[in-house]
Amino acid sequence: MATAVQNEPVLIAGRWQASHGTETFQALNPTTLEPLPPQYPVSTWEDCEAALAAAVDAAARLRQLPAARIAQFLDTYADLIDANMAEIAELAHQETALPIEPRLAKVEGPRTSNQLRQAAAAAREGTWAMPTIDTKLNIRSCYEPIGPVIVFGPNNFPLAFGSVSGGDFAAAIAAGNPVIGKANTSHPGTTRKLAELARQAASQTGLPEATVQLIYRTSHADGERLVSDRRTGAVGYTGSRKAGLVLKAAADKVGKPIYLELSSVNPVVMLPGALRERGEKLVDEFMTSVLMGTGQFCTNPGLVLALSGQETETFIDSVRQRMSANEPGVLLSPSVQQSLVAAVDTLVRAGAELLCGGQARQGRCAVENTLLRTSAEAFLRQPEVFQTEAFGNASLVVVADTIDQLADVLRHLEGNLTGCICSAEDGSDDPHYPALASILTQRVGRLLNDKMPTGVAVSPAMNHGGPFPATGHPGFTAVGIPASIHRFAKLTCYDGVRQGRLPWLLQDKNPTGSTWRYIDGKWTTADVDG
Amino acid sequence: MATAVQNEPVLIAGRWQASHGTETFQALNPTTLEPLPPQYPVSTWEDCEAALAAAVDAAARLRQLPAARIAQFLDTYADLIDANMAEIAELAHQETALPIEPRLAKVEGPRTSNQLRQAAAAAREGTWAMPTIDTKLNIRSCYEPIGPVIVFGPNNFPLAFGSVSGGDFAAAIAAGNPVIGKANTSHPGTTRKLAELARQAASQTGLPEATVQLIYRTSHADGERLVSDRRTGAVGYTGSRKAGLVLKAAADKVGKPIYLELSSVNPVVMLPGALRERGEKLVDEFMTSVLMGTGQFCTNPGLVLALSGQETETFIDSVRQRMSANEPGVLLSPSVQQSLVAAVDTLVRAGAELLCGGQARQGRCAVENTLLRTSAEAFLRQPEVFQTEAFGNASLVVVADTIDQLADVLRHLEGNLTGCICSAEDGSDDPHYPALASILTQRVGRLLNDKMPTGVAVSPAMNHGGPFPATGHPGFTAVGIPASIHRFAKLTCYDGVRQGRLPWLLQDKNPTGSTWRYIDGKWTTADVDG
After folding, report:
1. Residues B381-386, mean pLDDT to the nearest whole number
2. How far is Cα B79 from Cα A24, in angstroms, rounded to an integer?
3. What total number of domains does chain A contain?
């Protein structure tokens, strides 16, 4: 006789409460392929409606609070994450199969709390809002909160890009907005734990209870309704291209800013001089990058471009040997496994040669490490198909006969997050660099020299973005404070507004003594008339 | 026997050439209601294709030029506009009926050349690109040209917002992009003259010939194809909401940034203390603002909110008397006239009381100065209908019984470019200000105190933007350099890129000695290590 199952609650208006939904789902442990016990509800519109109503209220109350209080919340939340790292990493490991150490507890976890602390510092200082003052005309402007932000987190970074803990969350909160998190359904338990810590931090620092809310899943129709609701301010989405484009269409229709991170094959150009000079080192670097996290990184090097020649053959052969010798890592879910096999199949059917791997492992959530190869000529006949993203531990090498042909391949690339050119230290590749770089730069958000794309530092100078379809708008970054915060803000101008009525950042006196403001065409930390 | 008519040429790839289109249209002189002789072609896709191909080439060549050369072009073009102001103003007057003096020759013309010179200065200095450097990680980023920009200019500012001379044009060029101008079909001759001056300036300063191109009209289908073409970088559109939303849908679908300025009723709250204190002065200011340019401004005060009471009745009656006594100005076109009459009719059918005007003038392109009135209660029953934009010399006064009801009206406003609160100098309205301002600020791009919204200064602190449907994204401004330039740029990050390969703005040495760069969290004009 079955025990009555208690469904997990959703977090709405500061309270863990039963969802209005009756349908449920379970997460899966990818290591064991066994479902995990908790039953998570599929929310109905009633849940969304309640969350939106509470978020509107929270948004109004957040606007009345000093930014320092929001900063305090982010710092407190970061401390709570650090203090609970063992439990968080264990939960995330069960749901994603990502290793507890170093990945979850020593890399992604600290990155997450560090990012929250950077967001806290940015909120406290206010420079992110680009306060701009024209003293002669008494016109002043700055970025302000945009309203409730809906965050859809991806499957591959349960903490650092998580819907209630990651980069979008940190940026949206730093801008002064409440967040409604839509958990990635592959790690609901991890997200639930993080939401609980966020709730606790909000309570400890006196933030509105609905500053952070959490639902786990909705119908597609309710998802579209949520992102296009009048009360929604903006949306952050990281995930599959297909689902992202559906949400984008719904949000675009009603002019809601939606920031998407969709897909990227991250081309790496291996120039012949570099391969001759340091071929084995490049194999090492590439292997680390392409297999890190079982290749499930947005910036995974899925496409390698090289010129035909012995050094390229040596590179390919070394990679193939090492890929074949390496035991494949566990993938995030059977669905990732299926998509990866399907993508490899698409590439093979298009004419790519399968050098190794390509098969799912029996009884494991894994696919053999996969290397494919094709010619530039073939690529140019079907450029779209050959840019199929094989999300996971796989990469396609495109071999061109000439530099011009390689340049032509670059010209046919879709928008990507990153592009890399490895060239010789001795200058022997330099004649080719300018033309290739000038084409590649236009197609990527970040151009790298001589290093692999998988490290995405949380730096003010980072751009984790790029032209469509890598993202929805090439002017924004999802990583890197303060720039990432702009996405969740509206520009507001105060024209002739009386001094005492101006927001703190725009009053004559520098609000912190160290806030950078653009006053009469100069960036300064001085007061107006100071 | 009819003389064979020579159609006006389009400007493609630096040459005035016959359009591939055979269909033509003529502009109309709104003062005489007579068609003007020149026949302008409706371009077919062949024209668009040729313009796009030339623009791609120009974009690549512009990227190789120093920014100072682009600045030189903008300055030269500004000088040519000033030198040809008499002819430009005469042409624009014929096509729009806007007065030669002061409007065209003394106000809009100088604003246009001044704006181009500000764009030149911004391009030369480079601060607009927000060069950001992380010296520790050697990650550097800045904004770069986004690619060919299509600009659709509005009917109401033939020069300052014109497709080849206005704010979008100046911003797109300053960012380093070529522009394909789509003339507003109500002033093709003015736009042609301006394009000729731009072509001349490009030739004098050695810019690619296709830096500025011009077509006059396309089919709707070709317009959608143009904005969504793979080669298009971004789009600037100012015009009707309906046409704008069709272009937005096409551009959004393929992730092309499109910046729109669509419609706005620009609410003005007249608080009772202000009306008691300086009622006649407010009537003067309002009259000037609402009838300026026959009310055909994006920031025209089309909606007045006031509390019921004697001072409001006095205000309304004064405005009504003065509107009735004033001869209405000529409108931009019969189509503007028809839309205005239709909008007034919509408001009246919704229950608004017509206090004066509302009728088209027989045999003239004009509508009587129009004032309407309704109650907040009625407004709240049909908030969407009562926000119908009556583009032209018309305004609707909404009278609320209580401040709470007035606040409720504000809560039901769509996104607007501006919102204004007039309050007493003596502080008697101050108790009401915070609540009203906090609601209004969220619904507008620019909040004004005690001044009318029609002046849009070209200031770094200006925001000519606002939440949907005023524009397509609340984070961008169409007026105000340097911020307006960001719209036509992509963010590009250089990660570990060798020093000699970095763009000029990101090299260690400050490129001009005066460019502001965000280095390791501080804005500075110093060199790296400087």
Report:
1. 98
2. 69
3. 2
> Which chain A positions have a beta carbon within 8 Å of B501's beta carbon?
433-434, 437, 449
Q: Are residues B308 and B421 in the same domain?
A: yes
Task: Tell whether B411 is within 8 A of chain A (Cβ).
Answer: no
Domain for residue A171, yes or no?
yes
The reply to whether A435 touches chain B by the CB within 8 Å rule is no
Print pLDDT tens along chain A (530 aa). Answer: 444 457 999 999 999 999 999 999 999 999 999 999 999 999 999 999 999 999 999 999 999 999 999 999 999 999 999 999 999 999 999 999 999 999 999 999 999 999 999 999 999 999 999 999 999 999 999 999 999 999 999 999 999 999 999 999 999 999 999 999 999 999 999 999 999 999 999 999 999 999 999 999 999 999 999 999 999 999 999 999 999 999 999 999 999 999 999 999 999 999 999 999 999 999 999 999 999 999 999 999 999 999 999 999 999 999 999 999 999 999 999 999 999 999 999 999 999 999 999 999 999 999 999 999 999 999 999 999 999 999 999 999 999 999 999 999 999 999 999 999 999 999 999 999 999 999 999 999 999 999 999 999 999 999 999 999 999 999 999 999 999 999 999 999 999 999 999 999 999 999 999 999 999 999 999 999 85
A415 and A313 in one domain? Answer: yes
Residues A80 and A162 in one domain: yes
For residues A431 and A375, membership in a common domain is answered with yes
pLDDT digits (tens, 9 = 90+) for A410-468: 999 999 999 999 999 999 999 999 999 999 999 999 999 999 999 999 999 999 999 99
- Of the residues B237, B261, B285, which one is the last residue of a structural domain? B261
User: With an 8 Å Cβ cutoff, are B492 and A518 in contact?
Assistant: no
Q: Which residues contact A83 (CB under 8 A, 6 or more apart)?
A: none
How many CB atoms are closer than 10 A to CB A318? 17
Strands B28-29 and B34-35 turn out to be antiparallel
Range of the domain at A375: 267-449
Q: Is A493 a catalytic residue?
A: no
Q: Taking the CA of residue B522 as centre, how many other CA atoms within 13 Å lie in the half-sphere pointing to its CB?
A: 8
Regarding pTM above 0.90, the answer is yes
| B448 → chain A, closest CA residue | A495
**Domain of B208: which CATH number?**
3.40.605.10
Cis check for the bond before A469: say yes or no (omega within 30 of 0).
yes
Pair (B205, B337) in one structural domain:
no
Alpha-carbon radius of gyration of chain B = 24
Boundary of a domain, candidates A413, A431, A449: A449
3-state secondary structure A318-361: HHHHHHHHCCCCCCCCHHHHHHHHHHHHHHHHCCCEEEECCCEC
CA angle B67, B68, B69 (to 5 degrees): 90
Among B254, B421, B493, pick the best mutation site for testing chain A contact (most A Cβ within 10 A): B493
**In the predicted model, what is the mean pLDDT of residues B347-375?**
97
Which residues are CB-neighbours of B349 under 8 A, at least 6 positions away? none
**In chain B, what is the straight-line distance between the N-terminal and C-terminal CA atoms, in Å?**
77
* Crossing angle of the two packed helices B85-96 and B109-125, in degrees rounded to 10: 120
A32 CB within 8 Å of a chain B CB: no
Q: Are residues B173 and B275 in the same domain?
A: no
Amino acid at B99: P
Asked if B237 and B314 sit in the same domain, the reply is no
CATH label of the domain that carries residue B390: 3.40.309.10
Instruction: Report yes or no on B251 lying in a domain.
Output: yes
Spot the catalytic one: B261, B311, B368, B389: B261
Does A355 fall in a domain? yes
Using CA atoms, how far apart are residues B276 and B282, in angstroms rounded to an integer?
10
Residues B146 and B230 in one domain: yes
Chain B touched by A92 (CB under 8 Å): no
Active site residue A261: yes
Asked if the structure places residue A485 within a domain, the reply is no
